[in-house]
Amino acid sequence: xxxxxxxxxxxxxxxxxxxxxxxxxxxxxxxxxxxxxxxxxxxxxxxxxxxxxxxxxxxxxxxxxxxxxxxxxxxxxxxxxxxxxxxxxxxxxxxxxxxxxxxxxxxxxxxxxxxxxxxxxxxxxxxxxxxxxxxxxxxxxxxxxxxxxxxxxxxxxxxxxxxxxxxxxxxxxxxxxxxxxxxxxxxxxxxxxxxxxxxxxxxxxxxx
Length: 208
Known about the structure:
The chain is α+β, with helices and mostly antiparallel strands. It has helices at about 1-15, 20-25, 95-105, 160-165, 195-205, and strands at about 45-55, 60-65, 80, 85, 115-120, 120-125, 130-135, 155-160, 170-175, 180-185, 190. Its cofactor is Mg(2+); Mn(2+).
């Protein structure tokens, strides 16, 4: 089943018919829905990539997430995320960025990783970052180790849990600029919201 689902997912991504905004907006706060996708990159926008790593877990697709360390001034301090980061000049493309960052942050053995494709890029206006998500897979659950300077915790979930409507809840998020209610995925009590939830929403739409 796993490889069948991966093959279907690869074909859907390769077709170029990505759900993009239609799926992403489901996990956007009502406060920002009317203008989120009107905000565009600018001359100061940085570019980076994240890795969405799938693996077989019973009859579904498992995937790891990370929790960022708490930093006093960090825009994404303490948030759930995918492994990833800023593109280096030496990276030939965003796929290499995603793989390199995953190796650095969670000690992923990238020699075992097979690329499925890239889903819709997403502009994160809060940090002025354009993120390019790469979907990949490994043939068994990866053994990962957090880099303590970049990752506070590694945790796992799967597509079946994320597809369960009961997993999507709402909470109040407080930032230096705003207080607002937002939808999120409840993953073992952890709040997965924002750009990570938007990318997960598109992945689920592609698989579903």
